[in-house]
Specification:
About 70% of the residues lie in helices and about 0% in strands. With about 1000 residues, the protein is an all-alpha fold. A hairpin with a 7-residue loop joins strand 1 and strand 2.
Length: about 1000
């Protein structure tokens, strides 16, 4: 670190330190700089160093340190005010506000001292000629802190009534403070209306909208405005994440997680900021943080997760239950210190109320990656005991009711009956049904249990049901991949059931069960051998046999109605295998409708989902969307999380395809939520988050999109999702970061994506990403790196034969070169190369449209060449050299206008823009008459154009026309205001 030997070096070092992240390291450097300033023996240097130290303390967790440098500054002001320049005089009075609010946050400072300080502030502001606005704002803070609502309301009214002046907080901070008070009084709508201009970006500062976004979360939840709360959390947390001084706002985001069922994300937030548990420099924000830590830990404990390991103060491991007790004790101890200082119980009452909050939303999906804590399983629910034992007859009756009507929960009901029957002697029928339904829950592993059930049914005297159970055993073997074995295994039960039915030994329901099982197995084989017409025909015949059996015989028997509906839907499968997608779609629709008509809508979901897929392939997006919505509706509460996630993700794709990014984002959000619930967050959930980020980006919701995309990236892999998805996510994220002004981070994302795309056979994406990386690197001030990226892009554009990309990369490099010392020659050479590339490509253009596009590119290149030359004129150059550069610039801009003129009316705006640029250069060169003629020529070019509200198809919309006219009229006024009326020479710029 170089030694500071003069005032300029000190100022440079302070400016550099001000750009460093908040925290102890920056504070320590400020202390070193103060020591260096004292050695310079310049009073103003010490004043500025003290002001810098005070500022970095205020924007850190060591706010309590700012009182010492301020006291020294105030003493220096009282002794020698002439040592302070205008800026430092203003700053001294400005930080009175920081000190007054900072005293409130330190419970060791007596309330009497704070009131005395408030009077001192009022006195000094009056002497300096400032209004009472800032003073009354500070008084309101004191009154609100101690719970004196009457005084706070009086001060609030006086604050708003006083004139805004140079000491008033910025609009953003004032509106935040005013909204905070309204929210404290329970006036959530009024608070949000006050915050609206800040939340919408009309006003901003170093800490806004950061704090307004955080403060808005609970009021929005209380008002039921959950979508806005979610958006403000994603936007706001991104802003406060890296700012050490914003522990209070950070706490509000943790609180939001605790109140919305996002406990896992709350834990992630705590893990990111371990120092917040122990930093003591700002007791007020520590009280706020520990209060919400207790709230979150209590929530986890209530969910049965009290013994879960959680992040906490360093030095030991913590369970949620232990941290809850620790955080509550810390918060209440801090609150007690404030109350002892204030002489009230107000701070403790507020802390207790905050820790006692109940969730406002059971679960608010956020779209970001987070695994919900899973509580231990609840003990099984059984019927009320009779004489100390479960009511087994009631459980059996309920299980039979559910299974007999195909209602959801039948398998679980039979499992409950089986648990209750442990140690009880049952008849074979009861044991058969229990084994049968236990096997259903096992899926492909249930074959042996189905066979056992078959034996019990036979023992119970029901041979038809025994054959049905054997058929189910054969079918699950097919599900396990043993299709040929299943075909062989079902042959016997099929022949036997037909004979039994003919002899009157079983009913239609059991017969239909065996026939449907056989049809399922044969259809499974048809899918394995899609090219075999014979196999497909056999499967179709088996399905039609089911229909022939039950058609017209279902009556009130819902199970037979289900067989008929399934058979109708199954007929779609051979049609699909044969390539008749339209017929397959119609049959799936018919089967789904039959399930709905039978009062079994949840069974329709599978076929509506398959119908949607077919409709999508057929290009019928309206039918696809209808089917997907029907599937969600019919699935209802019975639809399992993976299926719900898939349906929402498909609806997101459909809505995105019709450019409804808002609805598409809603479905992608739901898809991400249900994928997480299903335990598929790293696979299906990552897809959903990637899509959600893209749809948020399309809406211009950059911060939210960035949070979601960053959350998706860790789970997106080339192996699972394809490298195209990874590249697209990095690309989108780079776009978001660029819009947010995070240019270095945007460049990193774009370069990472470019590195993957580098290996693709088609190199257009690689070239585009390299070009975008160049833009970001240039905006980040990394000129050399930006030039390398543009050069890489240019080489790729050249290989691809993309002249437009090549020319734009050359122009970008020219502008970068101009920034460098003695870089004008290189900049000229690059612009000249861009011109040559355009001219050469124009001559070999394959068609008129391509030629016109290249001509337009040439016009823009000449225009930029002229602009670059004009901007290269530096102060101190000889007049002759300046004139020569401006002449060259004018020739390029005139050439630009001529090139655009060759394109006729289609390039009118571009031509007039070049004409006005030429006019301004002519004015600089003292050719006022030529400049006037150009401006008048532009006005004449727009006579009769763009006067109506709808604009003009030929010349662009009326707004563009008005803008050009305004530029021309401004140039004419500038020339007319000169002493010679615009006819004499113009002083050089």
């Amino acid at each position: 670190m170089s030694e500071i030997t003069d005032f300029d070096a000190l100022r440079g070092a302070m400016a550099e330190n001000a750009e460093q992240p908040e925290g102890p390291a920056r504070n320590a450097r400020a202390e070193e700089l103060l020591a260096a300033a004292e050695k310079l023996n310049i009073p103003l240097a010490v004043i500025e160093a003290l002001g810098h130290q005070l500022k970095v303390y205020n924007y850190s967790s060591e706010k309590g340190k700012m009182f010492v440098p301020f006291a020294r500054l105030l003493r220096m002001w009282d002794e020698r005010p002439e040592d302070f320049d205008e800026y430092e005089t203003h700053s001294l009075h400005w930080v009175f506000k920081w000190v007054s609010s900072g005293m409130l946050d330190q419970p060791h400072i007596p309330l009497a001292s704070i009131e005395k300080w408030l009077g001192e502030m009022e006195h000094r502001y009056r002497l300096a000629g400032y209004s009472e606005r800032a003073v009354r704002s500070a008084e309101h803070s004191v009154a609100a802190h101690v719970g004196d609502v009457a005084r706070a309301e009086r001060a609030y009214a006086a604050w708003l009534a006083a004139d805004r002046d140079a000491m008033a907080d910025c609009h953003a901070c004032e509106l935040h403070g005013q909204g905070w008070w309204q929210a404290e009084l329970g006036r959530d709508s009024e608070a949000l209306e006050l915050w609206r201009p800040v939340l919408q970006g009309e006003y901003a500062c170093a800490h806004e909208p950061h704090t307004a976004l955080a403060s808005s979360l609970v009021p929005l939840l209380r008002l039921g405005r959950q979508d806005e709360a979610r958006a403000n959390h994603l936007r706001g947390f991104r802003l406060v994440r890296a700012m050490e001084s914003m522990r209070g706002a950070y706490a509000e985001h943790v609180e939001f997680c605790a109140l919305t069922g996002n406990e896992a994300r709350g834990l992630e937030l705590l893990a990111e900021r371990p120092a917040y548990f122990t930093d003591d420099g700002h007791p007020q924000s520590k009280l706020e943080f520990m209060s919400v830590v207790a709230l979150l830990m209590d929530r986890l404990t209530a969910l049965g997760l009290g013994e879960r390991q959680v992040p906490g103060p360093a030095g030991r491991e913590w369970t949620a239950r232990e941290l809850a007790a620790h955080a509550r004790a810390e918060a209440l101890a801090l609150a007690a210190r404030f109350d002892e200082r204030n002489g009230t119980a107000y701070v403790s009452e507020r802390a207790r109320a905050r820790m006692a909050q109940e969730p406002l939303v059971e679960r608010l999906p956020l779209g970001v990656r987070s695994v919900r804590p899973v509580p231990p399983p609840a003990p099984p629910v059984v019927a009320a005991p009779v004489a100390g034992r479960p009511d087994l007859p009631a459980l059996l009756a309920e299980a039979r009711r559910l299974s007999g009507t195909l209602r959801p929960g039948a398998v679980e009901a039979w499992a409950a009956a089986a648990r209750a029957a442990e140690g009880v002697e049952l008849d074979p029928r009861d044991r058969a049904e229990m084994a049968d339904h236990e096997a259903m829950a096992l899926g492909p592993e249930g074959a042996a249990l189905f066979e056992r059930a078959a034996g019990l049914y036979a023992e119970a005297g029901d041979p038809g049901e025994a054959l049905a159970a054997r058929t189910r055993a054969a079918y699950v073997r097919a599900l396990a991949g043993e299709v040929d074995e299943a075909v062989a295994a079902v042959a016997g039960p099929y022949e036997e059931i037909l004979a039994l039915r003919a002899a009157g030994g079983t009913g239609i329901r059991q017969t239909a069960s065996v026939l449907m099982g056989r049809a399922r197995i044969l259809m499974r084989r048809a899918h394995e051998e899609p090219g075999s017409d014979a196999v497909r025909a056999e499967a179709e015949a088996a399905v039609r046999e089911v229909l022939a059996l039950v058609d017209g015989r279902t009556g009130e028997d819902v199970r037979l109605a289900a067989r008929a509906a399934e058979a109708q839907a199954m007929l779609a499968e051979p049609a699909g295998l044969a390539g008749d997608l339209k017929t397959a779609a119609e049959l799936f629709a018919r089967g789904a409708a039959a399930f709905v008509a039978a009062g079994l809508p949840w069974f329709a979901v599978e076929y509506e989902a398959r119908l949607a897929s077919l409709a999508h392939h057929l290009g019928d997006t309206a039918e696809a969307e209808r089917a997907l919505r029907a599937a969600l509706e019919h699935g209802g509460a019975e639809l399992e999380a993976p299926g719900r996630a898939q349906l929402h993700l498909q609806l997101a794709e459909v809505a995105g395809g019709r450019d409804d990014a808002v609805e598409a984002a809603e479905h992608a959000l739901e898809a991400a939520h249900w994928a997480d619930e299903a335990g598929e967050g790293a696979t299906l959930g990552a897809w959903a988050r990637q899509q959600l980020g893209g749809f948020l980006l399309r809406q211009g919701r950059w911060a939210e999109a960035a949070e979601v995309l960053e959350s998706a990236l860790p789970d997106l892999t080339a192996e699972t999702h394809g490298d195209g998805a990874v590249v697209q996510t990095q690309w989108w994220l780079g776009d978001c970061l660029s819009e947010l002004g995070e240019h270095r981070a945007a460049a990193e994302r774009r370069l990472q994506a470019a590195e993957i795309a580098r290996h693709w056979p088609e190199q257009h994406d690689h070239a585009t990403l390299a070009h975008l990386a160049g833009e970001s690197l240039g905006q980040a001030g990394l000129a050399a790196e930006a030039d390398q990226a543009y050069a890489r892009a240019g080489a790729l554009w050249r290989e691809l034969g993309n002249v437009h990309g090549l020319v734009r990369s050359l122009r970008a490099r020219a502008w970068l070169a101009l920034r460098a010392q003695d870089g004008l020659a290189e900049a000229r050479a690059l612009m000249a190369e861009a011109v040559r590339e355009c001219e050469a490509a124009r001559e070999t253009a394959p068609d008129e449209e391509s030629r016109d596009q290249l001509v337009a590119e040439l016009g823009h290149t000449h225009g930029q060449f002229g602009d670059l030359l004009a901007r290269s004129v530096a102060e101190g150059l000889e007049e002759e050299a300046v004139l020569a550069v401006l002449e060259e610039a004018l020739s390029q801009v005139v050439r630009s206008a001529e090139v655009f003129a060759s394109l006729g009316a289609d390039a009118l705006h571009s031509r007039t823009g070049a004409e006005l640029a030429a006019g301004r250069l002519e004015a600089d060169l003292g050719r006022s008459a030529d400049a006037v003629a150009r401006a008048r020529g532009v006005l004449a070019a727009y006579e009769g154009h763009g006067d109506d509200e709808n604009g003009d198809e030929e010349t662009g919309d009326s707004e563009d026309v008005r803008a050009r006219r305004a530029e021309a009229e401004q140039l004419l006024r500038l020339l007319a205001d000169r002493p010679d009326g615009g006819s004499g020479p113009t002083p050089l710029r």
